[in-house]
Amino acid sequence: MARSSSPAAQAAGNTFLASAVLGALNTANARKPLARNGPGGVLAFASGWPTSEMPLHAVGWQALATLGFARRGALRTPAGLAALGISAASWLALIRLWRQSMEAGNLLDQALRDGLGDELDVAHEAEPPDLAATSVRRQLAAGPLGLRATRARFVARDAANISYGPAGYRNQLDIWRHPALPRDGRAPVLLQVHGGGWIIGNKEQQAMPLLAHMAERGWIGVSINYRLSPRATWPDHIVDVKRALAWIRKNIADHGGDPDYVAITGGSAGGHLSSLAALTPNEPEFQPGFEEVDTSVVAAVPFYGVYDWTNRDGTGRADMEDILARFILKSRLADDHDRWDLASTMTWVRPDAPPFMILHGTNDTLVPVEQARSFAAMLKAESKNPVVYAELPGAQHAFELFDSPRTLFALDAVDRFLEAMRVRAGHLERTGAPELDGAAQ
Fold it and tell me: Cα dihedral angle (19, 20, 23, 25), rounded to 10 degrees?
């Protein structure tokens, strides 16, 4: 039976109980989103996103709060004891979330083997690293938003904010390269297209873990800004992506890159733009004034992308049409169907599509996983090249912005996929991590 307590302890206990309930709701939302559509889906993303990728951090934060309440006498009250029980249950659920994220390595490996078969194993001299053995200390120290490897380490002063088009800041790019990478070499190139609903975002906010990882592996990354709505009107966004590809084709050799081996990636709106660019090489409508430039890519790796603006199979968000109509295309689907259709990646699925690796989380409340599943099925049915589809249990939208266990597994999987495609294209026979001084191993 709880001892009698002071009014201050009673207040602390009540506050602790409210805090514990909120923490438990947040944990429940990270485990299974409380809403998937409309404003509720956006709120579910905002709270579930960091928790699902950093569950051990959440345990730590909640434990520190518990200690604080205990010092104020909260555990001497019935409300405080109830809060302790709720918090303990929340911690157990968070640990289960962490264990689920640690299973992503096996899932991604199986997806690669399903999509590539024997082509996967010839790409590495050794087995891929066992990221399941990565220490908890490293995962806790990694922190959010790619702080493990900063932009400053890989983007030299003369390689930042380079102009690739006439739109000022919105037509600037950064070049990510390891400082030890020879400038007279021909390193493979990965173009990164940021997300943000075609309305917000910039090149310095996203994909830092991926760009850093690939730079450590001897790749050159190119991260771009592009024109955003509502000032920009479709197809300005994809024209800029194509313009960046044209710039790479002409200039990347000066930075040690191979203009003939360019892959593309991006998340969310960037997943849409990168996948659309991959399926529309040299499309004149998307290359006004530079129609003669080769804008083909050797492979595409879209993360949690939007693949259809017409919602042809009902797998998209019902409320996305209004946003697209008001801000992006500035026309209604019913009145301008052909233009909306040509802006949709699904429309361009073709037998000669480049190799694709598609990643999406099952808990995504901003872009339904069902659309990625549908797009992957369409590609597999039509394309003569490999299609890898990885559906990650428990992952929210934008999961790989955190340097989390799931992200570490995803980075390794993307690396293995891209290296396998280099083998397939005859650009190397076998590969491992390049000998770069100071590269993270």
Answer: -110
